[in-house]
Amino acid sequence: MRFNQNRKSYSSFDLGERNVKVVVLSRDYMPLMYCDIRRAIALVYSNKAEIVTESGSFLRSISSRFPIPQVIRLLGKLVKHIVPKVTYTRKNVHIRDNYTCQYCGSRERLTLDHVMPVSRGGKSTWENVVTACYPCNARKGSKTPEEAAMPLPITPRKPSILMQIDWHQFFNQAEA
Q1: Which domain holds residue 154?
Q2: Pairing state of beta strands 129-133 and 49-60?
Q3: To pair with 176 at 20 to 30 A between CA atoms, which of 87, 99, 121, 129?
Q4: Do both 149 and 168 map to the same domain?
Q5: Is the model's pTM score more than 0.90?
Q6: Do 129 and 150 have their domain in common?
């Protein structure tokens, strides 16, 4: 990747190599998806989108300088908002629970715990599984959180895709 540190600019052949995502909003500012920088710039400069937040970096040509967007908004017709499904995986449960034990707050030696134990008919679903550290998981054993006197601070639920977007990284920069 060829990045000029002094000028915060990228040459055009480097855009495909960058693994940076741009948030795409609908015309009414509903989040739709991520796209890569190349697609975002194409949408902006073909007047199909506008830049909501700039990254602070620029794409330079011989005679011009173009800001690289961080968030863009589509200008065309309203897009039907389809929320993609978040698949149930160990990693996604940890993301939902912020890589934190839901019983004690520890961030070390994490595993998954069934709120209603499997031995009692509990299923591996979003609503029945939480992140727990090994000591808390062993202490709880085959009991429910109430029986083990280990209440959960929040009820586990299926997340939406929007939980995975850190909106502060895009919008707090403009305020600072």
Answers
A1: 87-159
A2: unpaired
A3: 99
A4: no
A5: no
A6: yes
**Domain match, 74 and 94 both:** no
Q: What is the 3-state secondary structure (H, E, C) of the chain?
A: CCEECCCCEECHHHCCCCCCEEEEECCCCCEEEEEEHHHHHHHHHCCCEEEEEEEEEEEECCCCEEEEEEEEEECCCCCCCCCCCCCCCHHHHHHHCCCCCCCCCCCCCEEEEECCCHHHCCCCCCCCEEEEEHHHHHHHCCCCCCCCCCCCCCCCCCCCHHHHCCCHHHHHHHHC
Length of the chain: 176
What are 93-130's pLDDT values in tens digits? 998 999 999 999 999 999 999 999 999 999 999 999 99
Regarding predicted confidence, which is higher, 170 or 61?
61
What proportion of the chain, given as a percentage, has pLDDT over 90? 48
Q: Are residues 151 and 102 in the same domain?
A: yes
pLDDT in tens, 46-76: 999 999 998 888 888 889 888 889 999 999 8
